[in-house]
Amino acid sequence: MSWIAIIVLGVGTYALRFAGPVLRSRITVSPAVGRYLTLAAIALLAALIGTAALLNGTEFVGIARPAGVAVGAVLAWRKLPFVVVVVAAALTAALLRLAGIQ
Hints:
Elements: H1 2-24, H2 31-54, E1 55-56, E2 59-60, H3 64-77, H4 82-98
């Protein structure tokens, strides 16, 4: 049963990725709909980041992880190199946990 599900999901994913370039020239949307689609993608990404940064399952993760994410966000906003952003965010969370702040 699990192999069938994996194959179906793989085929579905490939079909969706293939449909984008094929249907792009055939389907037109108004500028307002295009803007809303862009905003919806941003909102979805923000919700995923927020959930991953603040929760582990259904429980709050504490202060260390959100603080690391906040440091990473500020450094990314300041356009520092990706490696610096990731290392600084991880270091922030690790130092807070080492200090006993969960």
